[in-house]
Amino acid sequence: MFDDGAASAVDILSVTGLQKSLGSRSERLKILGGIEFAAKPGEFLTIVGPSGCGKTTLLMSLAGLYVPDEGQVLFQGKAVDGPPEGLSVVFQDYSRSLLPWKRNIANVLFAMRRLKATKEEKRAIAMEMLEAVGLKGFEDRYPWELSGGMQQRVAIARALATRSKLLLLDEPLAAVDAQTRADMQDLLLRLAKQFNKTCILVTHDVEEAVYMADRIVVLSNRPTHVVEEIEVPLAKPRDHLTTREDPEFLRIRHEVIERIRSFKRS
Amino acid sequence: MFDDGAASAVDILSVTGLQKSLGSRSERLKILGGIEFAAKPGEFLTIVGPSGCGKTTLLMSLAGLYVPDEGQVLFQGKAVDGPPEGLSVVFQDYSRSLLPWKRNIANVLFAMRRLKATKEEKRAIAMEMLEAVGLKGFEDRYPWELSGGMQQRVAIARALATRSKLLLLDEPLAAVDAQTRADMQDLLLRLAKQFNKTCILVTHDVEEAVYMADRIVVLSNRPTHVVEEIEVPLAKPRDHLTTREDPEFLRIRHEVIERIRSFKRS
Amino acid sequence: MDRFINGRINWPGIIFILLILVVWEVWAMIADSFYFPRASAVALTIVEDWGNLWAATLDTLRRAAIGFAIALVTMLPLGIVLGRVRVLGEIVEPVLEFFRPLPPIAVVPLAIMLLGIGDAAKLVVVVWGASFPIVINTIDAVKVQDPMQARLARSLRLTTWERMTMIDLPAALPRIFAGIKLGITVALLLTVVSEIIVSTNGLGDYLRIAQSDFSMTRVMTALIVIAIVSVIVNGATNWANRRLLDWHYRRSALAGRQ
Amino acid sequence: MLLLARRTFGLLIFLVIWEIVTATGLVSPDYMPRLALIGAAIWAFVTSGDFWLNFFATVQRMLIGLSVAVVIAIAVALVAARFALLRRALEPITDILRSLPPPALVPLLIFVLGITPALFYFVIIFGCMWATYISASNALSTVEPVQVNTAKIYGLTDWQILWQIRLPAAMPEIFTGIRLSASVSLLATTATEMLLGGQGLGAMIYNAGFSLLWDQMYALMFIIGLLGIAMNFLVAAVRYPLAGWQSRYSAMGAAA
Amino acid sequence: MDTVKVAYMKIPPLVSIKYAIDSGIMEAHDLNIELTVVNGGPELMTALASGSADIGQTAAGIALLARSKGLPIAVFGTGDTERQPDYNHNWLIGTEEAGTTDLKSLEGKTIGVVAKNSPATLAFMSHMVAAGADPSTVEFVALPFPQLPSALEVGNVDAVHVGEPFHGMIMSSDKINAVELANGLIHSDEGTEYALGAWFAQDKWLAENEDIAKRFLAAMEQSYRELVEDRSKVNAILMAEFGMPEGAANATPLPLKAKSFTTTIDQYEPLLEQMVLTGMIEDGKLDLNDAVRAVDYK
Ligand SMILES: Nc1ncnc2c1ncn2[C@@H]1O[C@H](COP(=O)(O)OP(=O)(O)OP(=O)(O)O)[C@@H](O)[C@H]1O
Ligand SMILES: Nc1ncnc2c1ncn2[C@@H]1O[C@H](COP(=O)(O)OP(=O)(O)OP(=O)(O)O)[C@@H](O)[C@H]1O
Ligand SMILES: NCCS(=O)(=O)O
Ligand SMILES: [Mg+2]
Ligand SMILES: [Mg+2]
């Protein structure tokens, strides 16, 4: 497994025996059935798994938002028992996670309160991030005046602006078009590299899972466990034109698709 | 264009010179800059375009939820000036479109008020649809007890259960995994065929756009107009294994990608 | 038509009120009773007795404003804390429910004994009454928060203070407004009632004297002045609410025809 | 059990404070009797049949008044939410009516209604309907746009949208109003009983005051306070099936 | 049997009418009484005006005031009277603590009364004027009766006007050194009897139902007689109506009519005189022949 002393010494995040049930008494459903994996600093993990299998539940547990029934999550060597510092989340329900009474720039700035910087510096960073996700000119609008994809990008800008060491991304690009998606993917990879961020990204897009990952974690149906971890030994930085035509890319992509196809829907 | 008498005689839906601006006074933004297209009964149209270009705005106008500034929408020969009968929508903001105080089955049933059927029949149809989208066993849960992908499928089940002639689908599969997505695609195609439904589906997934479409409508950046309509002469019913390997499929896919890539982000 | 209905000036409201005044005038003219003064007589009294009325109005407004302000600045934070910190809410809410139904008339004796017959005793009654709608609305509003906002707040590691000021308060404000609106009228109402019970000055005192003087016209005049004050105060509240919660109303307006 | 302990903890503190204040003679026992005396008075009440007649008279008036007030308040708010013209026309007049002091209103009302049970109920209903009305009209006037659009698409008429979307969405807030109305109904009932006499806890308080029976007066006030807590439970019980989803939904935001 | 709707304030003097009903005296006079409780003067007047009540009892001074303001009501029977020094229901009380030890010292002080522009203020003004003090220098504060003693005790007011049982309560309190400043609603010569409570009705009702008014007063007189004879009957009603314990009931002095029940104008003259003197009623505004319709029920 991944909980041997040597490995965890360098792991920034490690998950052991994570179990979680949700729902009220009589309808309680076992979601996570003992998840194990670890991430090294700067590693980019992608998580794939069938709809409703528990990816969001897993991310919530990693973020300290859910309390595990069994097992534990270690972040930077400390057990997670509440949202730890140095972690940002892009929630799957991005539209609800934006505060409707704050304009977009304020939604970003608001997450940066722990950042040690002057007001002007923060504003500059926030503007830079909004621009990077293609929202220049929309900073003074309210989130509900944006399209779905634009809202999702505000949420990404917010997570990036915090300069967190660990990024948890729950289908962060589900609502953007193919071209923007490719751009955002490269942006994420570039910033992750630049700031040595560790990223855990949930996606349903297998191409994305392969393109972004150093390692792909494939989850099973409920109760969820890790079926397989697939290393992606493709060189970084990656490139949409060349990487996607790399035979290794196609092989891994095929492998993941095969894996996913093997689950019957419950 | 498409408003010549002969064509509109058979068109179930036709859009002419549709213009729409949104936003409050000083920040008003021109979104739709004169959209023109039409759909024949039973036709499956997919719409692609950059994030924030106005796809949702267009669908809202087709549904009679937005009043065009200029131009008009004809549905079954009548000008649309409010939500017409015989039309269903899956909203992009699926999670908010489900009523949190109703269980999933009730969320489906409440949409079926115009359906002429007994209570039992309606219930049977609703259950059938929930089962078809893979949610058997979750009918008595609340929407907020489901994963994102599951919520999206409740919204699909609801739209399908109404037996509407025209379906407007705003990225209805953005939150489901690849395998479920393929299944849902086939489900939609099958039901569209079976009940001779006309479908207009917005998607960011180019493969999906090609796989589902009889015709693909490619939209430009804001102010949006139709850049191109691409016929998809692939035989129906389609199949994930064979269709996607068809050279014609690959050609069209390539063409669409090229088109989209040509837009710079604003 | 839409301009007429939803415009800045509430024409339908004004017309409705004018209509009532006309009906009143005609009815009183027909009834011609000692007990039923005419609207015009009341209007005349307002003009003639303007000096006294204005002084009384200022006294009443002063008490109501101070009482409401105290209730607002104490109950808004308290409500947020009680809504946010469950345990505290469970401990304190029953106490609120216990005190809430005690009639102000019953609170007056204790207040007088402890605070005298000056403004303090009346203020206690006003603060007492205005507090409940504000605190209860705030508690309930904070409790029904969108879970995604709660998760966001926690994942950003907001301190409890930050969470209460930056998430709980703005998110709850649209609902708290109902409590504020109630609180303002309760403050006005209880000021007048307390002036009636312990009368020294103010509109309540004016009203009480008019009653014992058997002057129906002046009783009605006092009521009409209270009505005017209420309309002005509520109008200002609604205006402030619209400005403050512009985002809320504009977002809700997306449900209408765009 | 723990919950019960927490729910009673605050009240216990209140009693302790009362006992300290009265035992140390901070306030004259003539006006604030010791708890033991009040307790004895309560015991004397609950063991006498006469008390229960008054008690149930008050409870009955309060419940009837509250029910009617809530129904009227929600009905008017619903109609006003449906017709913008009506809503705007009602705005100033409701603002006025809410602020008219009952002691000035009662003599005028006698003129119209006479001294009858109708007057009694009018005062109670008039007093307690506003909290529900304000909450209801506030909640009904703003909604989640996507929900309304969904309903429009599926052919709900404006009335059905009001009934099936706006009302259920507004329910949690409406119940905040009902919660306030419930205590006001109790307050208005006892206050009216004080004014107009007859049976009821309010009349008993009035009598006790005139007879200088302070222990009885406070005993009655304690009983009214407890009745207030009971009313709150009742409202919560009715709320659960109608708006309970909201609590469970919101609870998801806490650590789970 | 004739039905009479009677409005009254629920204070101890009600015992007589309560007794008259319960003991069957009213029935014996062929009267069916419907009682309506009201809280104060304003309600009482509208109760009659609206037809909720046919007759009512109020302070005699209030009835005169109402008539002077144009209300079409008239007194037809005297409920009770006051007569110095032996027959006394009103007290003005000051305290040594407040320095209000005589009427003169009231000048510039704050005075607690149950209502402004009422018999209570009349009492102060009348006695002060008689003592050569200037009543326009005092500030009146209206408080409910039960609150007057505590207001006096904690020093919120410097003097009060009360009746029983509050008079007894204040005088027996060991927390203050209460001083009786004056007795009686108005300043009067010894032996002058003037009306305190008055039965009144609208002019119109009175004109049409003089016979009923007669029987009503006759019944009331019988009731008074029986009660004066047997205090235990009074106590029984007080205990039933107010939930008073026996001791409290026994200690409650009642303004049971001392002399004659017949209403005469001279019972109202001293009142009017003082009300005019203190400015409550404008001189010449009120003709007692209109305001008082003596009904000879004997
Ligand atoms: N609050 C809740 N109460 C009960 N069950 C819940 C709750 N939240 C989630 N679940 C259940 O947990 C399971 C996993 O949900 P989760 O959101 O983690 O799935 P997911 O893998 O993220 O799916 P998707 O890809 O569709 O977003 C689902 O079956 C869902 O029904
Ligand atoms: N209520 C609104 N007020 C102002 N502008 C709005 C409003 N709603 C949408 N817009 C603007 O209209 C444009 C188009 O929005 P729309 O939601 O139609 O885009 P879309 O094509 O559906 O994008 P996506 O693929 O990201 O969902 C966006 O630029 C957005 O900012
Ligand atoms: N006395 C009215 C109180 S409230 O209902 O407005 O809170
Ligand atoms: Mg998920
Ligand atoms: Mg969209």
Automatic annotation (TrEMBL), chains A, B:
The protein's name is: ABC-type nitrate/sulfonate/taurine/bicarbonate transport systems, ATPase component-like protein
Family of this protein? Belongs to the ABC transporter superfamily.
MF (Gene Ontology) = ATP binding; ATP hydrolysis activity
Task: Show the Pfam families listed in the entry.
Answer: ABC_tran
Among its keywords, does the record have ATP-binding? yes
This chain's source organism reads Maritimibacter alkaliphilus HTCC2654
> NADP: is it a keyword of this entry?
no
PROSITE patterns xref list: ABC_TRANSPORTER_1, ABC_TRANSPORTER_2
For this protein, the record's InterPro entries field holds: AAA+_ATPase (IPR003593), ABC_transporter-like_ATP-bd (IPR003439), ABC_transporter-like_CS (IPR017871), ABC_transporter_ATP-bind (IPR050166), P-loop_NTPase (IPR027417)
**Keywords assigned by UniProt?**
ATP-binding, Nucleotide-binding, Transport
Question: Residue ranges of the ABC transporter domain?
Answer: 13-246
* Record field: transmembrane: none
From TrEMBL, chain C:
- Name the GO terms of the biological process aspect: transmembrane transport
Q: Which residues cross the membrane?
A: 12-30, 64-83, 95-117, 123-142, 176-199, 219-241
Spell out the subcellular localization from the entry: Cell membrane
List the Pfam families. BPD_transp_1
Record-annotated ABC transmembrane type-1 domain positions: 57-237
Give a yes or no for keyword Glycoprotein in this entry: no
Q: How does it sit in the membrane?
A: Multi-pass membrane protein
Where is this chain primarily localised? membrane
- Protein's UniProt keywords contain Ribosomal protein: no
**A Gene Ontology term for the protein's cellular component:** plasma membrane
Entry keyword set: Cell membrane, Membrane, Transmembrane, Transmembrane helix, Transport
Family membership, please give it.
Answer: Belongs to the binding-protein-dependent transport system permease family.
Query: Entry's PANTHER family?
Result: ABC TRANSPORTER PERMEASE PROTEIN MJ0413-RELATED, ALKANE SULFONATE ABC TRANSPORTER-RELATED, MEMBRANE SUBUNIT
What is the protein named?
Putative ABC transporter membrane protein
TrEMBL record, chain D:
The species this protein was found in: Maritimibacter alkaliphilus HTCC2654
On whether Acetylation is a keyword of this UniProt record, the answer is no
GO cellular component terms, semicolon-separated: plasma membrane
Any idea which UniProt keywords this protein has? Cell membrane, Membrane, Transmembrane, Transmembrane helix, Transport
Instruction: Please report the record's description of how this protein sits within the membrane.
Output: Multi-pass membrane protein
Supply the InterPro entries for this chain.
Answer: MetI-like, MetI-like_sf
- Residues crossing the lipid bilayer are 35-56, 63-85, 105-131, 184-206, 218-242
Q: Which family does it belong to?
A: Belongs to the binding-protein-dependent transport system permease family.
**The organism sits in which domain of life?**
Bacteria
Protein name in UniProt? Putative taurine ABC transport system permease protein
Q: Which GO terms describe its biological process?
A: transmembrane transport
Q: Transmembrane helix: present as a keyword of the record?
A: yes
Highest lineage ranks of the organism?
Bacteria, Pseudomonadati, Pseudomonadota, Alphaproteobacteria, Rhodobacterales
ABC transmembrane type-1 domain: from which residue to which, for each copy? 55-235
Q: Where in the cell is it found?
A: Cell membrane
Record's Gene3D superfamilies?
A: MetI-like
